[in-house]
Amino acid sequence: MAKDKTQKTTTPAPAARPGATPAPATKPVATPAAAKPAAQAQPSRLELLEAKQDVLEQRIADLEKTIASGVKGTAGPKPKFGRTRAASPTKDSKTGALYESKSACAKAVAAEFNLDPDDHFAWYQIIKLAPDRFVPCNEQETAIVAKMREERIAKEQAELDAKLAAEEAGKGQS
């Protein structure tokens, strides 16, 4: 015999006689499943995906507005890999020399501390050996370093252009 899906409900207790002890809790009575209110239809997978797409499009639009407004730090999470910060210009307080970055400083003075200039961790070893010697640049010095960087980049670009011109001239004669 097949079991019918049922919902349990309670029936009210019969009226108590005067002077009688209270009746025990009511017994559940089964009602057929057809008596249940109509369940709301579940949204289809397509409808769910469309709703999710709408939410994502709204988030993208909000991020684009934030980026266009120029507000820093609110555009989203920082990338896990790659460069997220600018180089910090450094000044050698002993010699007064300015360096574009801590890495450039380490390459320049590594020989003085008997270290390998190509070692990526040389900066940290140098800082341990001479903690007060290297200081961050102030605003004026940072401007000087930025100008030095621009001049270096322009020089490198000129060298590349000259090299390409020489290669093209060599190919044209062949």
Describe this structure in words.
It is a single chain. The chain has 174 residues and is mainly alpha-helical. It has a domain at 90-165. It has helices at residues 45-69, 102-109, 122-129, 139-173, and strands at residues 6-10, 28-32, 90-92, 98-99, 134-136. The strands form two sheets. Strands 4-3-5 form a three-stranded antiparallel beta sheet. Strand 3 and strand 4 form a beta hairpin.
Throw out a few tags for this protein.
174 residues; mainly alpha; three-stranded antiparallel beta sheet; 4 helices; extended
Q: How would you briefly describe this protein structure?
A:
The chain has 174 residues and is mostly helical. It is built from four helices and five strands, in the order ββαββααβα. The protein has a domain at 90-165.
H/E element sequence: EEHEEHHEH
Which radius of gyration do the C-alpha atoms yield?
Answer: 39 Å
Rounded mean pLDDT is 77
What global shape is seen? extended
Helical stretch count? 4
List the helices and strands and how they pair.
Elements: E1 6-10, E2 28-32, H1 45-69, E3 90-92, E4 98-99, H2 102-109, H3 122-129, E5 134-136, H4 139-173
Antiparallel strand pairs: 1-2, 3-4, 3-5
